[in-house]
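Hi Q.,

Before the meeting this afternoon, I wanted you to have the iron/sulfur cluster prediction in hand. No need to reply - just skim if you have a minute. The sequence and ligand are here:
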Amino acid sequence: MYFARYSGEHLCDEHFRASVEKRVRRELRKQGPFLREARVAVALSGGKDSVVTLRLLHEALGANPRIHLSAVTIDEGIASYRPPSVEAAARHCKELGIEHHVLSYEETAGVTMDKMVANPLRTLAPCAYCGVLRRRNLNEAAKRVRATHLATGHNLDDYAQSILMNHLRGDTERLARMGPHRPERVQPGLIPRVLPLRLIPEKEVALYAILRGWEFHDGECPYSVEATRGRFRDLLLDLEEKEPGTRHALVAGYDRLAPLLHSGSALRACDACGEPTSGARCRACVLVEGVGGRMPA
Ligand code: SF4
Ligand code: ZN
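Predicted structure with the ligand bound:
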């Protein structure tokens, strides 16, 4: 029996599964594009969130001839962490008959995360580089499979953390750019995001994957100890413990705010690599050049 403190519900296995599926389908309808023709690339790391996203989208949309599903996996080049998850991702795609594209940082930025971390010129925490390169790679990989939408596995905890982080940093630009991207919020050069799991708590995603018997990679990145996001995760979990429903409230508040938020600066092509950016040079170019590399144009 599963007890959801935020809603006060006690659910048996069967009703828990049905509840997750219902919430995901409702969220998909709300985010819209699937009702029409679309080519959806799923960002598939091989972890629980992305595996559940891929398989639920396949169940919900796989039979729809107007929807094409593919999967893209980003290989950061972390030897002790990424290879088994890339293999898990490939196995799911093979089993479902889904096209799978892997794109590495080595290919797009000429550097692996292992090399980046060892670089004496590095001044920031590993995740500061990795997050920027991952966003870039995901967008590039989605373009390569001609996707009209990119589905990511962000769960409720991830999504609420991002909202809180952006609020606490006063970063209204990032708040305005957060997905899901409805048609009026699509930015040139960026594949719009859909987030089917954004209302499902992380614990529920893991439980759901286990109940369905879906294999997923459960390793931890060796560089995650330096991640600042961890502080926001702990803060939110503490708030949720004391005030159940805090994460949902943050998202509901953001949804009311989002239509009023406008990105202050229009995107333009980066002077160095041509990718969309709000300044003269994109963040990926600035970071990679800072450690002596160069993003390919
Ligand atoms: Fe990259 Fe940081 Fe995630 Fe590791 S924890 S994969 S370095 S963003
Ligand atoms: Zn650039």
